[in-house]
User: What shape does this take?
Amino acid sequence: MKTLVLVEHDNTNMKDATLAVVTAASQLGEVHALVVGSGCASVGEQAAKVAGVATVHVADDAALANQLAENVAPLVASLMESHDAFLAPATTTGKNIAPRVAALLDVMQISDILSVESEDTFTRPIYAGNAIATVKSSDAKKVITVRGTAFDKAATEGGSGTIEGVTGAGESGLSSFVSEEIAKSERPELTSAKIIVSGGRALGSSEKFEEVITPLADKLGAGIGASRAAVDAGYVPNDYQVGQTGKIVAPEVYIAIGISGAIQHLAGMKDSKTIVAINKDEDAPIFQVADIGLVADLFNAVPELTEKV
Amino acid sequence: MKILVPVKRVIDYNVKPRVKSDGSGVDLANVKMSMNPFDEISVEEAIRLKEAGKAEEIIAVSVGPQKAQETLRTALAMGADRAILVMTDDEVEPLGVAKILAKIVEEEAPKLVICGKQAIDDDSNQTGQMLAALLGWGQGTFANTVDVDGDSIEVKREIDGGLQTVKLNLPAVVTTDLRLNEPRYASLPNIMKAKKKPMDEKTPADYGVDIAPRLTTTNVTEPPVRQAGEKVDDVDALVAKLKAVGAI
Assistant: This one.
């Protein structure tokens, strides 16, 4: 089987999310990668070095600079004439593009896979991860999104894929890019951070969130996450949200502070290696999944923890 | 313009789903069902566009069992004008739903379709994008803010790194994210009024599209259960524990 992996990138650097997808694809067959962007030659070179990647198709076109689904999907659909499976990371980019490709190919997508059981059978979470379904696809071509935390990352060195240029269909004329507000941060990205410090509604305000959570994260070199409640309340921006519909994370250590532990939040972090919970409500559901729990007022406990770690 | 809003009847988001012991699925017998939360946000956004004078009519549509009527009545009580129930007891996959919706779009000619970004039962996150592809329309997924201006719509999207704004020609498909709005509760008088609003009943056969499932669910299991660890008494003990597991 010949697979086509959508490379996640920002036209300069390949993102880690790609590496888990390469691993999933390698369990299906030969791995081809697809870099879609503008001025993205360096990403093509990075992708070619990933262990297991045989060929990298690079579509370098001004019309593809922002990877608008309307422009990318027809290109992928045409490449799928010579590939058997399209795999994208279950990131907002992948989730935007893959279903559009699937519909163009008249294929039912398999979303957010956790494992490859055989070339047509996969497991995937449903009901916010409260159940795991094994699904078998009868479509001749497969369109798949891959949960990054469920597969090991392929090595970024050791591959020697050949790079081939491909051309897209150009502008669809349906949509255009206006602007982007990307948070600039020195912090590790949530989906690849080793430690995450996450805050909930109990923080009470954006000032308190900053005052209590940030110093601990700084000291630990951690990424910062938040519950939906904290995002909805405006303490932090949307890209901090961990949960069923936000980011799915599985760091070495997840420190949940003032987070009660709604099932939708647990869905996004319960695969973390060690879960620490600090909450003053000893009956909070977060303690049912926490490896280490501390029942305490976070406004006292967290500054003390920051000082002592 | 007309706005089409697809809504799905799903397990209520406060209910913890239970996997059936025979592995055939999740037990939905006697479980509270509600409108998919993202679809509530879609209905709300359509109503706000109507209230702002940017839309004239809102049509709610659901593909599902007879009981999906209740979900449509909720949409009508919130403020949708009429409803279409495409009745089936079979599970219809996102691709099939998108095909039915595409046919309804042909008949109704809405300028905008607002879908929830995902349903909280199968967590697929596909229908809106698939519908946009089938119609050859632009798509504004994971919307945080929408702004309709004449023949186009600007959609601020929630993406992994922050926010992205795209401009789409109308007609277009938008899928809603959590921060788009806070859906209203239907008032009692509106719930009463909703009972008199028109609801068409159709079947998938009326639309003549192939909705045979492409995926077969062979087994559904509980995820591995995470055991609660231990509680510590104070911060010093917490630090010691963190060191013991090599976390810091």
About this structure: Chain B has one domain: 2-217.
